[in-house]
Amino acid sequence: MRAKGAEMPGKDCVKVAVRVRPFNKRERDAGSHCIISMASSTITIQDPRNSQSPRSFCFDYAYWSHSGFTRDRSGLYVPEEPGGRYADQGSVFQDLGEGILENALQGYNATLLAYGQTGSGKSYSMVGYGPNKGLVPTLCDRLFQAIRANQDSRQCQVVDLLSRGSRSPGGLRVREEQQRGFYVEGLRRVPCDSAPQVEQLMEQGTRIRTTATTHMNANSSRSHMLIIFQLKQIFSKESITKQSNINLVDLAGSERQRVSGSEADRLKEGTAINLSLTTLGNVISALADVAVGKKVVHIPYRDSVLTKLLQSALGGNSRTVMNAQIAALSPADICYEESISTLRYAERAKRIQNRAVVNESPTERLVKELKAENARLLQRLSRLGQEGRRAEDETKELRRLLTHNELQIRAIQTLWEQHLQEALKDWEQQYATITQERRMMQMHPYILNINEDTQLSGVVKLFIQEGEWDIGLSDSSPRSISVRGLGIQERHAVFINVQRRVYLTPLAGSKVIVNGTPISQKTELQHLDRLILGSNSTYLFIGYPSERGGDDWSRYDYDYFQSELAAAEGIHLHSLCEEQTQGDSSAVPSQTDPSLLAVFYDYIKLMPMVAEANQMSQELHKGVEFKLEIKNLALSDSKGHDLEKDITVRVTSLENKQVWLWSKAKFVNRKFLMEELYQQHHMEQKREGAARAPMPRDRDPFWDPLEPLLLGSAHLWLQSLAFRIALEEQLEVLGSEGTEEAILQAQLLPCSPTGLTLGEDDILIDPSELLGRRLDFQLVLDQCCGLRWVKQARNRGVQIGFRMFDSAQPLYTPAVWHNVNPLLDQRVHFTSLHTSQGLLEHLQTSALVLELWGLQEGCRDLVSSLEGVRMTPEGCFIIDQAGPPDTATTVDPGSELSCSLRALQQDVEELRNTNAALKTENNTLRDQLNTARTGAECGRGRSERQGSSLRPSCDAEFARALKVFYHSMTSVRVQLQRLRRHRPSEESDLLGLRLFVDEQGGLLRDFSELLEQSVSSLKQDVAAIVRRKRERSGIWS
């Protein structure tokens, strides 16, 4: 169920609890494994990439909500067995909520922080869903139960952080007073006398939060939510007033911190949300250091709005419970980085200590002081009256002060009562609006919002009554529906509700998508149709009540909308699974690789962000376009494995065709900065006469310095080198999406140490003969033909990069510019002084990856670095450096003498070997000559002489046959790769599919014929060699 740790020293230490949620749909589909285990109050997390290094953390409370639960008839999640380990909502409140309530009733401030990545369950634990009420609604119920149990004068107030009326462009301002500390100016306080009223206000607050995030082009994971309950208790008998605040904080998604820090970028993450989370972490670290006795000069409360408002909660007058995981920990292996970051964050927080005191209302304190002063004045007046008129002037002054104090007391009390009455009227108005909305849901069709945060989905309902209704930014017409969002026009589309049928007609230039398909003309809507207006304003259409039935609307979540869009672009799980089974013949079709599913979900997560970035670029006149690409990591794999994929974003300047490739993390970081720039642009537009200063280019998130781009790669298989057979190839250079970027002419030439190409007599039948011997070969890059990169813009250039076996640094060819078919004429000599088993296996199973890099004007060339590279005195690059250390030299201008000495030693060793071979051959020839002279056993002697001349002849014939076979197998491999890439178009109709089947059949026949010809030719050559050998040896007559 739950585990409670040992009591922490000091009653005012921050309590930290961790809760592990079940897998969500995305994690189940991805085949995720649970990497978190729990024992008592200890949480252990396992790195999925390194099973030998688990990390353990100990907290005050640990809740296991991942498994072991069932759903009863009322929809409540309960443990499967009585006393089971599953921790339900009631268990969490018993440990955390009870303490908050008790502290508040005692007059202390209390705070609960929910921290964790987006989608990890923070909102479920804080607010809950359906009958599974979270901490906030349960706390309200219990609070009013306590009020009813004790009928002293108490008032509970909800502080609404968002004004319902018009908001200033910069939001509400944070002020500071010596007594109050930091506070938000203009917050609305609403009195409540029951828990249902609080729940209705929470619903209204969620609605305003949803609308506000839509206006700001953001979602809930990029905003904090702070709920403040203010409890005021007046004890008449004791003449004591206690006032306490309960702060419930749902922080923004913590994965923003990981993404922004996971990759170097010239622009650091600058958004306010990330700044506030970073500052909160710095404050927690500083407070933790203070708690253990370290000297801390400064605690950076003032560095963000969030930490200003939480100053008393974190390090001042508050008893704080920080729930670092209540929605913070996903148990999935694909969320390891976010989960370990959250645990570290929570571990620092548990060391914080606060000094809590009972709170007294500033207003009540002032009234109390004034009453005491009045009592003193009355006492002095009575004494003066007894003494006569000798102090008449003093008496008048005292009466004036007394009257002034009474008027001040009356004014304070009147102002407070007026404030409460106005807030109560406002609340009654909002309650009437909510009631009216519920009635209209039973009368009219409507569209409801779908948000990435499920807690904010279904909050906004836009009703479509009979007649024509304009939908867009404009709300000037009485028959208009106002919506906000990127890409929404003043008049975006028209809803027509006639004869209980609803139609949607996009207006000119507007973007409207229905069920994943863009529409441009009048379209009839059906119940549960999915609508996307503008860049990414997602809505679900709900028909008339008679059409609704018992449909389950929950499956139409945010991911469903994006999956539909991806499928329309040809990206769906089915296509990824097909690529997997084609890339791995042993793969089971029913089992999808989790990495492919993770890539798919990354793709649909980034799709709306790319759409928003394109819209912001258009409105800000940046002239750049963003496009998602799925990168095949096989392009950089020497084994050619094609299962691993990744997401990249191609950024193109529409004016000069300049191109950048951004990683997923870099794009997410830049997207947040684009949002801030976009908001600043709109704020400046609202200010009359405000001149917009141009942004420096180095601070513009839409711009980056030009860098070489990896356009694609080709695989040059090295198997022929193991037999010392020359290879000449025309290689297809394939881009990340399988497009042909160029044709590269390359050669592998076995050679002598001096660079002379070896002949057929040097071909090996058994590659193991190379072990321990020197191997020299040359890589020749002749020409690159049909460069698509240069065809698109003639002011571009290319380079070829490669890394041979264990070379320390990649090598690059000189840059060639402005040519679609450039001559490369690059020749590189590689040497292995003592061929190892590792190199031999590499040659037989791997390929040399030749990378095609694109250059643009203003872009630096790629330069080969010789740092750590070893070379022979002749300038040959040494590979296979695991051999004896005395066989190679490191490039060093000061070691020429040593190089010459080693070269002489090698020459002497070679001469010795040659001399020994000549001696052996001389002895053989001498024996044959003696045998011929004696004439004894002529037949046998003739047979021996035939045998001695037969072996080298047969070896040469075998070598020639193998050379032909390897060349033919190269053609077979090219045909196989063409088959793997050959797929039908997503728009193909029945006739197109038939043509595809015919083409596929032709390719399969060609592949079969090539393979049969290669194998048959080898069989015939071997049979002919064996026949000739037997004929020469006299076995056949």
Automatic annotation (TrEMBL):
Q: Could you tell me which InterPro entries the record lists for this protein? A: Kinesin_motor_dom, Kinesin_motor_dom_sf, P-loop_NTPase, SMAD_FHA_dom_sf
Q: What subcellular locations does the record give?
A: Mitochondrion membrane
> Per the database record, which ranges form the Kinesin motor domain?
13-352
| Molecular-function GO terms, alphabetical | ATP binding; microtubule binding; microtubule motor activity
**Do the record's keywords include Coiled coil?**
yes
Instruction: Give one Pfam family.
Output: Kinesin
Q: Where does ATP bind?
A: 116-123
SMART domains reported for this sequence: KISc
Know the name of this protein?
Kinesin-like protein 6
- Organism of provenance: Coregonus suidteri
